[in-house]
Amino acid sequence: MEKQPEDEKKESNPSVDRDRSLETRQIRGLSQRLRRPLSLESNLPPEGPFPAQGGSEAPATRLISESAAPVEKLSAPPVDASAGIAPVAAPETRQIHREPQKPVPAEGLLLEGTLLQGRYKILGVIGVGGMGAVYRAQDLRFANVQRFCAVKEMINAATDPQVRQMIVRNFEREASILATLSHPAIPQVYDFFTEGSRSYLVLEYVSGKDLEALLADTEGFFSEATVVDWAVQLCDVLSYLHNNKPKPIVFRDLKPSNIMLDDHGRIRLVDFGIAKLFQSGEKGTMIGTEGYSPPEQYRGIAEPRCDIYALGATLHHLLSKQDPRLEPPFSFHERPIHKTNPTVSRELIEVINRCLEYDINKRWNTAEELKRALLALPSARGLSGTVGPSPRAGETAAFIDSTIKPLWRFACEDEVRAGLAFYEGLVLVPSYDNNLYAIESENGEFVWKYPTEGGIGTTPCVAEGLVVFGSTDGVVYAVNARNGRLAWSMPTKGRIYSSPQVAYGHVFIGSDDHNLYAIHLGSGRKVWNFATDGQVRTRPFIEENLIIFADTEGNCYALGLNRENKWRFRARRAFMSSPLMYKGLVLLGSMDWNFYALDNRSGWVVWRYRTGGPVVSSPVILQRTVFFGSTDGAFYALDVNEGRVVWRYECESKVTCTAAVYGDRVYFGDIEGNLYCLDAQNGGLRWRYKLDGAIAGTLLVVDGVLYLGATDNAVYAFPA
To answer: What 8-state DSSP symbol labels residue 472?
Structure first.
């Protein structure tokens, strides 16, 4: 007989964790990966499979000029050499915002206004448990935005040294597990620290209600379609956990109070306090909640099919309103759902009953198998996916309108890879046949064209009746928008793929000659140029007297209007994604697979989201959501303040274009020629249309019409 590991014996009290109160418990928020957002280490992308690059530095920010506000020198925190991370030079200056700090009380709840780590200000209590509480707090590190978080507290009041050690180990295990996870249904972890006898996890604050509270507040029963929708989402996150590498994760305590419905209507799985890395054949002590836990869990066995049983018990509770904690264990067959709720279909009841089989081998084998069974139900029509392999995390509902057709199509002589522009009823089209075209927006008829000496791969900019654009012949052109006649031209020493931006009467545009240029709009006279480390192929963004742009050496620059360098951020790989500034944040993607949000005053990383491939697509914003695509074949919607995934849509191929938002919809395409229209709030597919060429440029919506070009040498107009 295999010897039971000592640490497993001490893992928890053998008694079942009984919920002694059925009062509403609103939770908390957990995690994706453990990190310190504004530490020096936060500028380092996580270790990943992107190719090695000789001599590349870790991402870092270099402050060029000091602010007039009071500053405090910071020294670099120690870096663990064993982790294989090279130290990063500390910035010279940093603005510090200090508030009076209230002392942490020796016992009892933290007082409102208490400041933890000089950073997290306690705003109130979310919930209280037997070993601590969960607080709503504000992260004061971010001066430009109100960033709320949840602070989970563990008070270690045990006197026995072994018990104290076990409590600390379990709390640290929760943090360690959460640090490895990245899924839209699992909230983020931001920080982990200890002060005296109290340990804290700083977590994403999830605004919403747990399903137990929602069940108590709801008169009558939830609809079957609603519960099936939640079940499908739970299958997605359980599948993610059970397929975790190198070892599956068993949640072990799935129940309504550990499932939240956020303000976006998405399911969030919270409280990983007893989650466990699964190893075949390993036994431990009983942990879980009586009524929801399967029989084998009482014997110390925890494997993925335990979560299948708990999900079945949860669905039974949600549909029947019979709390399993108040009934004898494993007695679901004695109180069938239809006795209290006759509206539930026989097919769904059969699916749930198989989840609740006493014999583990008679249950659904995997969460993917259970999900397929749920999606086959009549009540699941309109939910995500088809019966087949489980989609990747966050894939959303698909509704296809096959009646969508182009309003018109205009043929060029070569590919259209850049975005279009609009001016007084004219659509302006850059093409690799060396021409800039002007066509009627109403019917797609030709009006005029201007020829250059090279292909045009930049999105034009229209200002004061002039169309400004660059060409691969190395020249910046300005032509009259009404007739296409040349107003002026200015040569550079490299090809131009950077799209121009006009502000304060000047044109700002980059070149492959490693320069950003400022050109007088009226005369075409060069006012200044700023030398960079690499080719400038991004479109500058200008706001608040800052010029933000990036180069192919992985530098993102912030300049003043007179080209003084405010700061520079360095990523591991090139920037091809053009930056966008929103409420104090600079947003852009990188070829190092990350999408960054930088503080516009310092260049420090506020948050970073890692995709599965290089990010070429430039971001667009709608309300609090930033949208972009990745070459991993997914289109992302992230919360702009926190970097949390709101939803993710799996496409047929890589997404390199820049999307357009219009009303409650977002439009984009992939390199296989698929044009998508999604619901901007939940990622549901409204319609899809297949073109004959890749969609690589910026999409444009004007007055209810969507305009775009493709590599099939054509320009299209669709109803938006």
So the answer is: T
Report the distance separating Cα 462 and Cα 502, nearest Å.
8
The reported pTM is 0.52
Q: Is residue 325 part of a domain?
A: yes
Rounded to whole angstroms, how far apart are CA atoms 618 and 656? 8
* Residue 135, pLDDT score: 93
Q: H or E stretch including 512?
A: none
Task: Mention every residue, 6+ apart, whose C-beta is less than 8 A from residue 368.
Answer: 235, 239, 389, 390
Q: What is the pLDDT of residues 637-666, one digit of tens each?
A: 999 998 988 888 999 899 999 999 998 899
Which residues 6+ apart lie within 8 Å of 165 measured at CB?
Answer: 10
Angle at 565 between CA 564 and CA 568, to 5 degrees: 170
Q: Which helix (H) or strand (E) holds 307?
A: helix 304-320
Place of tokens 């007039």: 68
Domain carrying residue 342: 6-17+210-380
Q: What does the longest C-alpha to C-alpha distance in the chain come to?
A: 89
Q: Who's near 385: CB < 8 A, 6+ residues apart?
A: 371, 375, 391, 395, 398
Query: Which residue in 393, 28, 26, 30 sits closest to 187, CA to CA?
Result: 30
Residue that has been written with the tokens 């709009």 in this structure: 521
Residue 350 lies in a domain: yes
Which of 262, 260, 268, 307 lies closest to 185 in space, CA to CA? 268
| Helix axis angle, 304-320 to 367-375, nearest 10° | 30
What are the residues whose beta carbons fall under 8 Å from the beta carbon of 6, sequence distance 6 or more? none
Burial class (CB in 10 A: 0-12, 13-18, 19+), 69: exposed
CA-based nearest residue to 233, from 206, 207, 261: 261
Count the helices and strands in the chain (H runs, E runs). 9, 44
For the sheet containing 705-709, what is the strand order? 408-411, 714-719, 705-709, 700-702
Distance CA 146, CA 121 (A): 11
pLDDT at 166: 78
Mean pLDDT of the chain: 82
Q: Does residue 529 sit within a domain?
A: no
115: in domain: no
The span from the CA of 511 to the CA of 529, in Å, is: 10
Q: Could you give the 3-state DSSP secondary structure of residue 211? A: helix
- Could you give the 3-state DSSP secondary structure of residue 137? strand
- Amino acid 706: pLDDT: 96
CATH number, domain at 251?
1.10.510.10
CB atoms within 10 A of CB 367: 24
260, two tokens: 């939240």
How many separate domains does the chain show? 1
Digit-coded pLDDT (tens) for 187-205: 888 888 888 878 898 988 8
Using H for helix, E for strand and C for coil, what is the string for 312-369? HHHHHHHHHCCCHHHCCCCCHHHCCHHHHCCCCCHHHHHHHHHHCCCCHHHCCCCHHH
**What does the alpha-carbon distance between residue 58 and residue 26 come to, in Å, rounded to a whole number?**
40
